[in-house]
Write a structure and sequence with these properties.
Layout: H1 2-17, H2 31-42, H3 57-69, H4 76-80
Amino acid sequence: MIRKKLSSVFLFFIISFSLFGQGVYQHISNQNIYEFLDELANEKIIELNSAVKPYSRSLIANKLHEAKQKTEGLNRRQIKE
């Protein structure tokens, strides 16, 4: 009985550590970030599939970080934003 309990508790912890949280998406009403990402994609600074919206916040952060690495292709306004 105790062995069965310990094994089920152990199994619970193993499963719970392998789970990931749900992604948080940026609502499409925030058009500024979507327009900015589309602008960067149109100028070939980043690669983005604009057909799949809304974007997750982690995707937005990754794409902005990617654009920051390529500052030679950005103008002053884009760097400021």
